[in-house]
Write a structure and sequence with these properties.
Blueprint (H helix, E strand, L loop, with lengths): L4 H6 L2 H10 L4 H7 L6 E5 L11 E4 L13 E4 L8 E3 L9 E3 L23 H18 L1 H12 L8 E5 L5 H8 L3 E6 L2 H10 L4 E4 L12 E7 L8 H11 E12 L5 H9 L12 H11 L2 E14 L2 H10 L14 H15 L5 E13 L2
Parallel strand pairs: 1-3, 4-5, 6-7, 6-9, 7-8, 9-10
Antiparallel strand pairs: 1-11, 2-3, 10-12, 11-12
Length: about 375
Amino acid sequence: MSLSPAIKAAMSAESRSLFDGKLSRDAVQAAFKANGAFSSETSFESERATKAKGALTVKTAYPSDCSSKAAAHLSAEESAKTEGYVATEGDVKAEGYITTEGSIITKGSAKAERDDTASTINEQDVAHRFSKAAVQYNSIAGIQRIIAKQALANLPIDLQGTVLDIGCGTGIHTQTLANKGAAATGVDIAEGMLAQARKMYSDPIFVEGSAVDLPFSDSQFSTVFSSMALQWVSDTGLVANEIARVLKNGGLAELAIMVAGSFSELKTARKVAQLPQAETYMPTTAQWVNGFKQSGLSLQRVITKDYVDTHCDIMSLLRSVKGVGAGETGRKQPPLTRRDIKKLAMAYSNMSGVESKLPLTYRVSHFRLEKR
């Protein structure tokens, strides 16, 4: 891929090398040019598995417009012998892990890995952002609905007993859980979201509360569900302990959690445009696995997938990030100027290589857990 002289002149040597030496040959580049959405999937079976048999399937869709879509799927299961858990290459070093390449990783506690260098997430800030986004959330969160649909499909068709939806937002998925036959309860830290949920749905119960301090009794729920909410917590261990506490013995948890590696295109475009990075914190898949392991929950399955959303222009992309409450979670950053936005748009357009198709990746780990 070649850049215009004007853009090259505005870049540092390091930024130019990102294009000239790497990005043009990246697998993601090929996916962008396919004019569809792209997802990569790595699946690893339970801790007792001895082999993960490999299979590769590719399916590409060609959307007719620039609306938010994720229609293509790339799944790959790498052959790997396991003694405990298996982590994808690039995950943090954690106890009991073996890479997909087969080399043993040094045992020890998980080392914190962040997208940037953000400070601890402030739950009040997160609640405020999501409350502000509540009214338009359902119309904006197209990719979130696709991810939640996959998570819901992982559950049994008929749910029995009681189910908790953590980070229920506007309640759309809580209602789906109720439709499956369960007595559904939704919990969220954003009162604005809960207000919308109560207006729209009368069957489920909606309660304000935090995932790190769930306002429920021990062993109250037979199923715990969560989609695209737990990435905003700063302590995976606390969340894991709370899920273990409120689950009944024999209960299941199905969780879809955005992890480190999300929004990679936006991060790269900011670097190329020589703009400061937005401070975000998202735990890695390995950190979540360690948290669940330490809580006593049994990991049955984890699948990590990249869901790629596409946008017509940079403002649409930025509004989608802000509109779903996924802004900075660290120190406040100065707002982008018009010049900054123009530089970001130019960098993004040259990266994608597809006219009017700006991609944004949501990396999501789908966990299945059991309390024994």
